[in-house]
């Protein structure tokens, strides 16, 4: 059995490793995986041999906290939300940081002011005021110690458990500096009381209390920056659960009874009315309807359901009433399986951990050992000189305090995430940014990711004497009463060309085939080839055209009047303008591109081939998407998943890195590690580039941090004293520690210069209008023409103002007329301006061009 636990108190990979080892030793536990970033632990265990309480006890005995599984689920089912522990932790850490700086600034000014030539009050000058000078520093450092007591509680606790982590070294280093400062206070008091001026002068300059305050405050700053980069993942499951209706209308004893969905049993018959959600999985036994399954499949086109067809929980009934028989209820439904997959995938551990934390398990005990050996050696060689031994030991601990190590990762991550935000890339966790640089395979959803996510008219092919305008008029008039997405595409195409519609009478929907209606006394049909065959209408030469359109992944719709074929209109979900460029960008980075979709194989192959995708996997169910990602990972591949639908949530969570299109569903965004706010797939390429730059920067930071320790520790320990008579004073050790942090931060700030290589300057776009109506718009010769851009995303006058300003700035654009209600921009050109450049200009302004006429 697999269960997910919530673990508290972990601060680094050494902590998560220790928890894994502790739980792994429990008899009956098959496997355990701890996710440091989410604070979760996935345990696979034998229920007959071990209980959840035993697992919790193992975590507690290891020095951490754990909660029994199911508490969050119960809270969600009861309509309440579990506490936002991450947000509360961030608020507390921010308060600690502010208060720490409030005391550190005067402490640092007082302790270092005389070295910098800063003015100090007279009561802090002179040998006679040495105790005031020292005692004030001591009183200023005490609040910092109290505010950041968490490092001591965790650090010494893990040290006592013989599993020291980064907090242990922080606690030891700062505590040693404070103890050294307390010893200095006694020395100053002794000197003043016994008239020993030399002793007073020496120890008033050897307080090092500011080192303790600096260590704790800077580490808290690093922890704050790291915590702020964590994303919230707990809402994804609650959003999934909200998709399932709370009640179901069940037929019992010949009557419709509304019962809680938990009480529905397998074999019972459920009635679903228009607009209602399907409560459980089942098979239709009576009635027919059009069902929107986009919540599960991600496909925008509703699916016709007749007796014998399967329906799944969370899908929406759009038209007729139908009755179905329940086949899977409770935890067995497709939606429940998706929820379980998201829970397990979110709790699974990413393959890449922080380099600094991986080294911490060795670095911490080694440094402690070196400090002890240094003190003992100096005691021996100096004949028991405790001051010299303490000075050397404290110098080792202070110079070895992992301030630079602690800042190397979070500061680079902070700058990297900020740079990502500038490019519309929301990075929700440092772990995701680290992992992304190592991916070698990217899995892309089709609908809404590679394509625009909604069908549009691509070709209008009239036959005989029928014109394009006449065919579109008839088609849009017939389709207007229907709410099918394909109908909406045809009506939209007619509206874009300002074609008036005719009134339709005797309208009727023909299940699974199309529609019929009467226009001005004529009998019209609209639908698929099967409808025409039933009516005895021959396709003739149009059959070849329809076959060619279908081979291109388009849906051909036939229109006839009084038994005579009028023409064909093709509808398809077109690729986004930057999709092909994004695939090329992934290839340039050495990444294999896989398209994963629930659409039919023919359409998927057509779209995939046109974009240059390496591998196409079609007709997959939601749970199959997660399984396909897991299969790629089992081959040793590092996988990134890009998607936008609820059905992508398990795969997004299972992938090493999940990237969600910003215009996608909330669940996909919550499940993903990275959100592409502009819904541009090229931003996924930019995210990979940024990740590589950030990780390279982190490795540079860690290199210099370790080199600093390799050079500084021997110097602090006095290794070079016999040869050069050089003995590092703890004051300089503290200064060196601070300088190492400054160097790390300065290096991380270089990431502000990052610029993506594959940012599109002119993405490919069709030369003709997206609906394919008429001849392509010429871009050669003498220009005195207009183009009408249909633009999605404009909501107010500020939006139209931004688009107008961006287009007007283009060379060759003489005027721009915006139409907010019509969601369009009419551009008058005086020179050669390509559709691609117009599209890119609008895209850069934050909007999407869906058609150019």
Secondary-structure blueprint of this entry?
Elements lengths: L1 E7 L4 H12 L4 E7 L4 E6 L6 H10 L3 E3 L3 H7 L7 H32 L13 H18 L1 H12 L5 H29 L2 H8 L4 H20 L6 H9 L3 E6 L2 E6 L8 E4 L8 E7 L1 E4 L1 H4 L5 E3 L4 E2 L4 E2 L4 E7 L5 H14 L7 H27 L4 H15 L2 H20 L2 E3 L2 H7 L4 E5 H5 L5 E7 L5 H12 L5 H12 L8 E6 L3 E6 L2 E6 L1 H6 L7 H10 L3 E7 L2 E9 L6 H10 L3 E5 L4 H11 L3 E3 L4 H13 L4 E5 L5 H6 L2 E5 L4 H6 L2 E3 L5 H36 L3 H4 L5 H20 L35 E8 L4 H12 L4 E7 L4 E6 L5 H10 L3 E5 L1
Parallel strand pairs: 15-22, 15-24, 22-23, 24-25, 25-26
Antiparallel strand pairs: 1-3, 1-4, 2-3, 5-6, 5-7, 7-13, 8-11, 8-13, 9-10, 9-12, 14-26, 16-21, 17-18, 18-19, 19-20, 20-21, 27-29, 27-30, 28-29
How far apart the termini lie comes to: 59 Å
* SS element count, helices: 31
Output mean pLDDT: 77
Radius of gyration: 34 Å
Give the oligomer, counting copies of the same chain as homo and different chains as hetero: single chain
Helix content: 40-55%
Strand order of the largest sheet: 14-26-25-24-15-22-23
Count of individual beta strands? 30
């Amino acid at each position: 059995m697999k269960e997910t636990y919530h673990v508290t108190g972990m601060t680094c990979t050494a902590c998560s490793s220790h928890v894994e080892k502790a739980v792994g030793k429990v008899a009956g536990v098959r496997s355990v995986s701890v996710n440091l970033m989410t604070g979760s632990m996935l345990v696979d265990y034998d229920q007959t041999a071990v209980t959840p309480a035993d697992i919790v006890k193992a975590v507690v005995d290891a020095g951490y906290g754990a909660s029994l599984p199911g508490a969050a689920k119960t809270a969600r089912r009861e309509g309440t939300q579990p506490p936002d522990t991450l947000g509360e932790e961030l608020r507390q850490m921010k308060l600690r940081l502010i208060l720490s700086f409030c005391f550190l600034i005067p402490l640092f000014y007082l302790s270092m002011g005389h070295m910098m030539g800063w003015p100090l009050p007279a009561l802090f000058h002179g040998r006679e005021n040495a105790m005031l000078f020292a005692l004030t520093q001591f009183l200023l450092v005490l609040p910092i110690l109290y505010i950041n007591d968490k490092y001591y509680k965790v650090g010494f606790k893990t040290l006592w458990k013989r599993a020291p982590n980064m907090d242990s070294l922080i606690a030891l280093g700062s505590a040693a500096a404070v103890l050294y400062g307390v010893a200095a206070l006694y020395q100053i008091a002794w000197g003043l009381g016994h008239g020993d001026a030399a002793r007073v002068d020496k120890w008033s300059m050897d307080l090092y209390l500011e080192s303790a305050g600096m260590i704790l405050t800077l580490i808290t700053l690093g922890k704050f920056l790291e915590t702020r980069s964590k994303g919230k993942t707990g809402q994804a499951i609650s959003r999934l659960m909200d998709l399932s209706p709370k009640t179901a209308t069940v037929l019992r004893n010949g009557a419709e009874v509304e019962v809680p969905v938990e009480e529905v049993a397998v074999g019972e018959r459920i009635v679903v009315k228009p607009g209602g959600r399907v409560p459980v999985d089942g098979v239709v036994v009576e009635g027919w309807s059009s069902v929107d399954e986009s919540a599960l499949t991600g496909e925008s086109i509703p699916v016709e359901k007749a007796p014998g067809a399967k329906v799944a929980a969370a899908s929406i009934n759009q038209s007729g009433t139908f009755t179905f028989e329940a086949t899977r209820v409770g935890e067995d439904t497709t939606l429940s399986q998706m929820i379980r997959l998201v829970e397990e995938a979110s709790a699974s551990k990413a393959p890449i951990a922080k380099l600094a934390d991986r080294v911490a398990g060795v670095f911490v005990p080694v440094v402690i050992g070196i400090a002890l050996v240094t003190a003992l050696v100096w005691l021996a060689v100096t004949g028991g000189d405790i001051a010299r031994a303490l000075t050397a030991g404290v110098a080792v601990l202070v110079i070895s305090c992992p301030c630079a190590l602690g800042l190397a990762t979070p500061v680079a991550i902070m700058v990297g995430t900020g740079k990502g935000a500038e490019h519309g890339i929301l990075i929700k966790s440092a772990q995701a940014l680290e992992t992304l640089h190592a991916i070698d395979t990217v899995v892309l959803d089709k609908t809404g990711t590679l394509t625009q996510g909604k069908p549009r008219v691509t070709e209008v092919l009239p036959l005989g004497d029928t014109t394009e305008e006449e065919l579109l008029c008839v088609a849009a008039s017939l389709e207007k009463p229907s709410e099918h997405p394909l109908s909406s595409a045809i009506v939209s195409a007619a509206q874009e060309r300002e074609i008036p519609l005719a009134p339709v009478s005797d309208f009727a929907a023909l299940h699974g085939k199309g529609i019929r209606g009467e226009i001005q006394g004529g009998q019209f049909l609209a639908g698929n080839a099967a409808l025409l065959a039933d009516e005895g209408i021959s396709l003739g030469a149009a059959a070849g055209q329809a076959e060619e359109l279908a081979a291109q992944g388009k849906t051909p719709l036939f229109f006839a009047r009084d038994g005579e074929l009028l023409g064909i209109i093709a509808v398809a979900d077109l690729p986004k303008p930057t999709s092909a460029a994004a695939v090329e960008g992934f290839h340039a980075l050495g990444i294999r591109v896989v398209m994963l979709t629930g659409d039919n194989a023919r359409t998927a192959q057509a779209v995939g081939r046109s974009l240059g995708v390496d591998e196409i996997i079609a007709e997959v169910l939601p749970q199959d998407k997660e399984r396909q990602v897991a299969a790629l990972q089992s081959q040793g591949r590092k996988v990134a998943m890009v998607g936008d639908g609820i059905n992508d949530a398990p795969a997004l969570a299972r992938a090493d890195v999940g990237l969600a299109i910003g215009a996608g569903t909330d669940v996909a965004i919550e499940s993903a590690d990275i959100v592409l706010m502009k819904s541009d797939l090229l931003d996924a390429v930019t995210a990979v580039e940024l990740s590589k730059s950030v990780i390279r920067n982190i490795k540079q930071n860690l290199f210099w941090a370790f080199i600093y320790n390799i050079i500084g520790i021997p110097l602090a320990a006095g290794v070079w004293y016999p040869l050069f008579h050089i003995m590092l004073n703890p004051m300089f050790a503290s200064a060196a520690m601070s300088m190492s942090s400054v160097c790390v931060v300065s290096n991380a700030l270089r990431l502000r210069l990052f610029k993506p290589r594959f940012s599109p300057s002119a993405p490919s776009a069709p030369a003709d209008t997206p609906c394919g109506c008429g001849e392509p718009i010429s871009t050669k010769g003498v220009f005195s023409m207009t183009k009408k851009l249909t633009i999605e995303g404009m909501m107010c006058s500020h939006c139209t103002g931004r688009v107008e300003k961006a287009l007007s700035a283009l060379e060759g654009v003489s005027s721009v007329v915006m139409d907010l209600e019509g969601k369009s921009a009419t551009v008058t050109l005086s020179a050669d301006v390509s559709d691609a450049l117009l599209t890119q200009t609008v895209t850069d302004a934050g909007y999407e061009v869906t058609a150019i006429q």
